[in-house]
Structure formats: structure tokens, C-alpha cells
Design brief:
- This protein has one helix spanning about 50-55; strands at about 15-20, 25-30, 35-40, 45-50, 60.
- By secondary structure, the chain is mainly beta.
- The strands form two sheets. A three-stranded antiparallel sheet has the order 4-3-5. A two-stranded antiparallel sheet has the order 1-2.
Length: about 60
């Protein structure tokens, strides 16, 4: 599955997992990406869209 939103471009973020002993290991935070049928420029297409874009009505779902 795609790891980048087709609308806003949101992708994975990287950082450290921090244990109680303050040992640092690399980790990734993945965006919540959904495969969706959207209406764009009058046509229907499938796109990978983050849930933030769906909630804020940046995309129109195709029925």
C-alpha cells in the first residue's frame, strides 16, 4: 500500500523509540492512508488519501 497521501503529500515521519533506560532505537510513524474512489476534475479515480484529508473535506468521495 502507498505510504504517501496523494492530496497533501503526508508521508512517514522518523524518530526514536525511547525506553525507560533512555535507549534510543529508530522507528517510523506511518500516516493513516486509505484507498478511496474520489471525484477529481469531473472524473472518478482511485487514490491513496490520508484520513485528515477525508475528514477536512479536501476530497469528494465518488458514490
Amino acid at each position: 500500500m502507498a505510504k504517501k497521501c496523494d492530496i497533501c503529500g503526508k508521508g512517514p515521519l522518523v524518530g526514536n523509540s525511547v525506553s525507560h533506560a533512555h535507549n534510543l532505537t529508530k522507528r517510523r510513524w506511518m500516516p493513516n492512508i486509505q484507498k478511496l474512489r474520489i471525484k477529481q476534475n469531473g472524473t472518478v479515480k482511485k487514490a491513496y488519501v490520508c484520513t485528515r484529508c477525508i475528514r477536512s473535506n479536501k476530497v469528494v468521495k465518488a458514490l
